[in-house]
Amino acid sequence: MEKFEIHEGVAAALLRSNVDTDAIIPSREMKTVGKTGLAAGLFAGWRYLDAATRTPDPEFVLNRPEQQGTTILLSGLNFGCGSSREHAVWALHEYGIRVVIAPSFGAIFAGNCVRNGLLPVVLPEAQVAELAAAVGDDPQGRRITVDLQRCVVEAGGRSYPFTLPASQREMLLKGLDPIALTLESSAAIDAFQAADRQARPWIWLD
Questions:
Q1: Could you tell me whether strands 143-147 and 152-155 are parallel, antiparallel, or unpaired per DSSP bridges?
Q2: Rounded to 5 degrees, what are φ and ψ at 193?
Q3: Contact assessment for residue 120 and residue 102, using Cβ atoms and an 8 Å cutoff
Q4: What DSSP string runs through 117-183?
Q5: Which of 16, 57, 163, 174 is the most exposed, having the fewest neighbouring CB atoms within 10 Å of its CB?
Q6: Which residue segments constitute the domains of the chain, with CATH numbers given?
Q7: Which residues contact 166 (CB under 8 A, 6 or more apart)?
């Protein structure tokens, strides 16, 4: 998993509440096995006038010329609600999204984000709206900086602090999944097991 420390990128504002996982990646778009081949189906119900022919809707934010290369998504309350499908995060990541900023997230979706190197940033709704306004007025390309080392979002000359659970922040900063992060404590685990073998040998069946 790629490390996440500081990311500066083009931001797109999709300020809708309750964007569920079926909107992010409709079930009909999940035709491959694994994490790849999903980017074309991202937001397929909104992104295309005709999903079958992939005719783009020019009004959808990600299809606008100024939004090419978008890596940061601004959205509304409860982003990623609905099913637990991890494909929603895989589709966002394959498209190039590294950060989603919203007032709240579906809990399972947020956990899937962290496990796949995508940062979910929670900011108050008013601050998300300010960021959307700032990037909308930015003639240099709608750019936002997200610094996970300092836990701050910067745009339009303003800073917006955010928090993230320590374990999730460590996973992203180190680029480690939960198993790899646990293995960093392998020496302590081995020491515990050795001591437990001495204290309770009857439970260890070798």
A1: antiparallel
A2: -65, -40
A3: yes
A4: T-EEEE--HHHHHHHHHHHHT-TTT-EEEEETTTTEEEETTEEEE----HHHHHHHHHT--HHHHHH
A5: 163
A6: 6-200 (3.20.19.10)
A7: none
Nearest to 120 by CA among 106, 136, 135: 106
Give the pLDDT score at 184: 66
Tell me the residue length of the chain. Answer: 206
Q: Which residues of the chain have pLDDT under 70?
A: 137-141, 179-184, 206
Give the β-pairing of 48-50 and 55-56. antiparallel
Measure the CA–CA gap between 105 and 79, rounded to whole angstroms.
5
Dump pLDDT digits (tens) for 116-160: 999 999 999 999 999 999 887 655 557 899 999 999 999 988 999
Angle between the 107-115 and 87-95 helix axes, to the nearest 10 degrees? 50
Q: What pLDDT is recorded for position 7? A: 96
- The pLDDT value recorded for residue 14 is 96
Q: Could you give the CA distance from residue 154 to residue 82 in angstroms, rounded to a whole number?
A: 30
CA dist 99 and 129 (Å) reads: 16
Cβ of 197: how many Cβ atoms within 10 Å?
12
- Side chain identity, residue 157: G
Token pair 């008013």 is found at 126
Give the distance between the most distant pair of CA atoms in the chain: 70
- The answer to whether 153 and 131 have CB atoms below 8 angstroms apart is yes
